[in-house]
Amino acid sequence: MEGDKKVQNTTLWLECAGPLVTLPVVGSYVAYFPQGHSEQVAASTQKEADMQFPSYPNLPPQLICQLYNITLHADQETDEVYAQMTLQPVTGVSCQQEKDQSLMSNLGIQTKEPTISFSKILTASDTSTHGGFSIPRRAADKVFPPLDYTKQPPAQEIVARDLHNNEWHFRHIFRGQPRRHLLTTGWSIFVSSKRLQAGDTVLFMRDQNGHLLLGIRCAKRQQTAIPSSLLSSDSMFIGVLAAAAHAAATNSRFTIFYNPRASPSEFVIPLVKYNKAVFHTQISVGMRFRMELETEDSSTRRYIGTITGIGDLDPIRWPNSYWRSLKVGWDESTAGQRQRRVSLWEIEPLSSPFIVCHSSSLLLRSKRPRLPQGLGQTLSSEEVLESPMKQSSLWGRGEEGTTDIQNLNLQGLGLERSMQIHQRSDLMALTLPSDY
Amino acid sequence: MEGDKKVQNTTLWLECAGPLVTLPVVGSYVAYFPQGHSEQVAASTQKEADMQFPSYPNLPPQLICQLYNITLHADQETDEVYAQMTLQPVTGVSCQQEKDQSLMSNLGIQTKEPTISFSKILTASDTSTHGGFSIPRRAADKVFPPLDYTKQPPAQEIVARDLHNNEWHFRHIFRGQPRRHLLTTGWSIFVSSKRLQAGDTVLFMRDQNGHLLLGIRCAKRQQTAIPSSLLSSDSMFIGVLAAAAHAAATNSRFTIFYNPRASPSEFVIPLVKYNKAVFHTQISVGMRFRMELETEDSSTRRYIGTITGIGDLDPIRWPNSYWRSLKVGWDESTAGQRQRRVSLWEIEPLSSPFIVCHSSSLLLRSKRPRLPQGLGQTLSSEEVLESPMKQSSLWGRGEEGTTDIQNLNLQGLGLERSMQIHQRSDLMALTLPSDY
DNA sequence: ATGTTGGCTAGAAGCCGACAA
DNA sequence: TTGTCGGCTTCTAGCCAACAT
């Protein structure tokens, strides 16, 4: 089956996915968020998960898994990139394992060597039948083979391969008054084959062997939410949860698709990243932070914001979840489009982050966690995390089922020294400061 | 959202769906088959449901529902027709209700008035860029407005609307030597827009107001199994079952999509049709039957076959299911493609069918059905249905988890008079002969 | 530096009857 | 009756530099 074929070129896939997308490596531990997965379904179907769902007692808001397998794909029709991940729920991760991972693969799959590439948002002229493609000057110099400028006009044939390993041929010529780089013959076939429109992005890059690759990224508006015609959105939402719950209950693997262009956020997060953010970073309302976001032209920019609230996104279905548990405001008034809720691991606190030593961290699973006694300044988990959430309905403005919590942070609840004890229904983590 | 818009013209939808497709009417009772629904998912994803599934005790092999809502749709890209049905599980259907339905809507939605239409399988010439569309003579006479043959050449403009209510304009001309009807200008735009290929079918019809409609039906081969890129096939299979099970457990509605061109068989069957086939028709191995199937050219033909076995398609996951419980052989040797398993309600026994009076039929739901005593020649349900199945592993050739049962039928098990008692885990039906 | 436009041209799209099955 | 083909015409796709931003 053609549509099932894997994408071979990881670098090209990542370029098409966008600058902020990271992938965990096979064998590493990750936190899987059913909420985030549901959000991807919601974004793809343009339907909210508004029905009443069965409860899955075995499915925590974050399911710790080992990444059993990951393959990269691209839609045969649209070239939309997606990753298939097979996750193996794990019942316990030892401290040593976690530390090993921390050293090995903090941020997941990455291409270390800086890629030689350029991307361009297509203009009306680029996509019209009237002409070819205008190559930005620097882009041509950087990624295309140099032209023989002694010829009149200088021209060559360009061969590039897409995610499906299909070859595309273009005539690259330097002409016009003033002179410019153009792709002529072959370009319009590419445009019509990929059904590109003005506003979409095309992307060329050169791999280690000097071979040219090209990919596309469709403008957001084109996400017309294919009404699946196979499964109702309700069934999809249930399927996502039930599959994960069944895997968790039977300790078996399950498979998900991560669609970076469609999904509002990543929902499979390296465990070390998750733990660092949740257990080793101090967060409070009013704290300022910065966060990288993708810009219109496919680069990244840091935006500054302030934490305005901490609480569950969905206190009914997903209590004590860290998924988008922060409510934020953005400094710039042009921030209308930006997320009003983010997760801890997405942000970078501007006040110097509080890091504690890993040496005594524990991570273990238990149905009824028993908190160790005699650790000095401890605080029951209910006091640390649950109590503010339980009261949220008293304070909240009711929006999104949460609240703005003013002047409240973990220290204000009595956590005087730098110790945090967090607890979930099935996963307990203790972090003790050693030399602070 | 464009893609969500309903199809307005039921008749056109039915024509595109094919001659054998029937739809239940709103308010009527139906039997929903999770197995059949899974088969549609399997056909669409080209994946078998090979994983281990959670068990859903609340979900019987056939879930009796009331059709709460049905809307017709067509894929915005491919024009593939599908129906969205919302089903309300019901706990009991009274005898009177069932009889009312039997009178009202035995066969579901149908267009009573014979439709004026024609369909044609496109030839290479029809789809090439070289020319237009050759209209079969009779077709032109039947559905297109008459030409003014005094003009030279006789020609007119044809306007037809598709399932999305989009208008298509064609030039209809009568020319050539010998004379023939052709569609010229406008035809190639239609072909390329719908991405029609030789072998696909185009279909014209005239509605009550004389307006022209047109639809398409793609050749089977074109089902290239879009790899969903959103949900893993495992999640889809689970989602289908979990959604139905949840609805059954909470007595709430659930929504499914029925895709007549992709699905091997209908899996939402009018209850009266189901009951008639299951409870009021006598079936035995060796019995000969006929069954209507769609032919290459979109008409129907009756094929003759013989029942070669009776037993569960999937004795492990779906014991005591009537879904494709008949194993059959076909008379014609060209039957390589035809189904080797069919359901009771799909066939028409050639020996005079055995019909009993409805007057004393009961249909009620109970978790632990207790069989009434003292009804004369009764037989426990285990003896009637389960015992042959339990022994199937001893007899079977192992294929498809069932067996060929030779010289075995219900009468052979001791059911001498015309009485049948069938029982499932949650639905019991008694049929007593009154005056036979 | 590069997006858009008018002019020009080559080649495909598309109309026709001839011919054949 | 209707599928395919060669001949011919029409029109669009597509190359070019001019011009504008």
Describe the structure.
The structure is a homodimer of 436-residue chains. Chain A has 436 residues and is an alpha+beta fold. Chain A is built from 10 helices and 20 strands. Chain A has helices at 10-17, 34-45, 95-104, 124-127, 137-143, 187-194, 233-250, 271-279, 381-390, 392-395, and strands at residues 29-32, 63-74, 81-89, 116-121, 133-135, 155-161, 167-175, 180-183, 201-206, 212-217, 254-258, 268-270, 288-294, 300-310, 326-330, 341-342, 348-349, 362-365, 420-423, 427-431. In chain A, the strands form 4 sheets. Chain A has a 7-stranded mixed β-sheet with strand order 4-9-10-6-7-8-5. In chain A, strand 2 and strand 3 (81-89) form a beta hairpin. In chain A, helix 2 packs antiparallel against helix 7. The longest helix of chain A is centred in the middle third of the chain and has 18 residues, at 233-250. Chains A and B meet through helix 2, helix 7 and strand 11 of A and helix 2, helix 7 and strand 11 of B.
